[in-house]
Amino acid sequence: MGVGKLLVFGATSATGQLIVRRALELGWQVTVCGRRTLPEHSANADIKTVEGPIDDEETLREAISGQDVIISVFGPSSPSPFTNVDVFVPAYKKILATMRNEGVGRIIALSTLSVNDPEDRFSLLRWLLATALWAIAHKVWKAVNDISKVFEEEGDDIDWTLFRVGFLANGPRLRPIHGYVGDGTLGMYLRRADIAEWTLTQADKSPPEFVHRRPGICSVNV
Ligand SMILES: NC(=O)c1ccc[n+]([C@@H]2O[C@H](COP(=O)([O-])OP(=O)(O)OC[C@H]3O[C@@H](n4cnc5c(N)ncnc54)[C@H](OP(=O)(O)O)[C@@H]3O)[C@@H](O)[C@H]2O)c1
Question: Which top-rank group of organisms is this from (predicted)?
């Protein structure tokens, strides 16, 4: 595709900041959108900022209009029963509707390995972790699974990819690989820098890969 206009949701997160930084290095024209803006983003003349609630139609229209690709990494900041998750499902419903209205066709959004995919095989580790999340932070588990259903049920005409992650870690880039649970290669450990690399590589692909699919991604040593 060649780099173009990229919108990043969740740009304030540690992961989002790395995506924004790497996207600028690669030559993308970057817009960030969220309920707050980091000073380093608002002070950067190369970044367009749109601030507002992530389920607000006018905020979304302003952010999404004219974009080539969206990368979204917003989500619950902690897997706690007290985390408020109410905004995420309505936000994704409105993001998909706004994409449709504005003629923006591509979104690459973060999901987690607690969401099942038909291409997965049984893994005891994944079962234990997903069951623990289900029991301890049921609202978070449900929100993540409901977001996946929103894409499935309302994203027919959108080129969406949900990439699923396990445990995030900081540190320099390793090598991101993709796969499915139980395939013998997909692990749970993922550096945030590798999310930036993987999502931006996918964002630049034409035709897009993993459309209407949910690959898992993890980091491996080079
Ligand atoms: N840490 C892990 O091991 C792990 C594991 C699985 C999945 N994840 C997911 O991976 C993503 C990135 O994680 P991270 O650790 O780099 O950063 P993070 O601190 O979890 O980032 C959360 C992002 O979502 C936004 N957000 C949260 N609640 C919001 C709300 N109510 N309204 C609007 N925006 C909201 C935050 O915006 P503000 O800055 O405005 O709060 C921030 O940009 C998150 O979606 C997280 O759920 C993390």
Answer: Eukaryota
Secondary structure letter of residue 195 according to DSSP: H
pTM: predicted TM-score of the whole model, two decimal places:
0.98
Is-contact 162 109, C-beta < 8 A?
A: yes
Give me the pLDDT at residue 82, please.
87
Identify the CA nearest to 212 among candidates 166, 167, 165, 154: 154
Using a 10 angstrom Cβ sphere, with 0-12 exposed, 13-18 middle and 19 or more buried, the burial of residue 170 is: exposed
CA 167 to ligand 1 center in whole angstroms: 13
In this structure, whether the domain defined by 5-220 belongs to CATH 3.30.470.20 is answered with: no
Domain layout of the chain by residue ranges: 5-220
User: Ligand 1 centroid to 16 CA: how many Å?
Assistant: 9
Is the minimum distance from the CB of 36 to ligand 1 under 6 angstroms? yes
Pocket flag, ligand 1, residue 76 (CB < 6 Å):
yes
CA-to-CA separations, 160 to 29, 127, 148, in angstroms, rounded: 20, 26, 11
CB distance 168 to ligand 1 below 6 Å:
yes
Q: Give the length of the chain.
A: 222
pLDDT digits (tens, 9 = 90+) for 3-48: 899 999 999 999 999 999 999 999 999 999 999 999 999 999 999 9
CA-nearest residue for atom 5, ligand 1, is 167
Task: State if residue 165 touches ligand 1 by the CB under 6 angstroms criterion.
Answer: yes
Q: What is the pLDDT of residue 1?
A: 66
Q: What is the pLDDT of residue 222?
A: 74
| Protein residue closest via CA to atom 11 of ligand 1 | 73
